[in-house]
Amino acid sequence: DGGITQSPKYLFRKEGQNVTLSCEQNLNHDAMYWYRQDPGQGLRLIYYSQIVNDFQKGDIAEGYSVSREKKESFPLTVTSAQKNPTAFYLCASSPRAGYTEAFFGQGTRLTVV
Amino acid sequence: KNEVEQSPQNLTAQEGEFITINCSYSVGISALHWLQQHPGGGIVSLFMLSSGKKKHGRLIATINIQEKHSSLHITASHPRDSAVYICAVNERGDKLIFGTGTRLQVFP
User: Fold this and answer.
1) Average pLDDT, stretch A64-87?
2) Suppose B98 and one of A26, B21, B22, B88 were both cysteines; which one would form an S-S bond, judging by CB atoms 3.0 to 4.6 Å apart?
3) pLDDT value at B93 more than 80
């Protein structure tokens, strides 16, 4: 079955450590996105990539980094510079840049202690 | 003021009731989405609208472009409909702006 796989579902890290969240899609989509969800707030865009080897900052990119070495993979690293990393992170993809429909993964809940 | 506003924030209903969730937006859009987020967190796309009305099973979504307003209706609600319903709009191209969601609980 085609879809977007995020792993792990739950992740715990100590403060000051970098952590990488995985997002893989087998939909052959060009565009991929990372969103952050906090209680009482709408999802906010962290980074997005419209094509392999290219990505742009979203609205809240500070403290995060991404790579897009393969079409199917768009990992997100939460660095120690991110002041409030505890959140729910969602990955999404769409067939191509400018295509309005997005497909979402199941999310990763990151807790930093 | 958020660019996408949803109401109500929380909604409880008895099984069988007709439910309406509203979404208003302040920007020009190319499409509006209704999404469903279950307690586990994963998001499923319910509808994508650019005009008119769409129906899927017990779910109906409408949009009024002139009034910048959309509604999601659930007929004959069921406890399995309990979830967070999120409205999102494409302002330009593929980037989405999300509402804060409406938490629905349907009791037997």
Assistant:
1) 95
2) B88
3) no
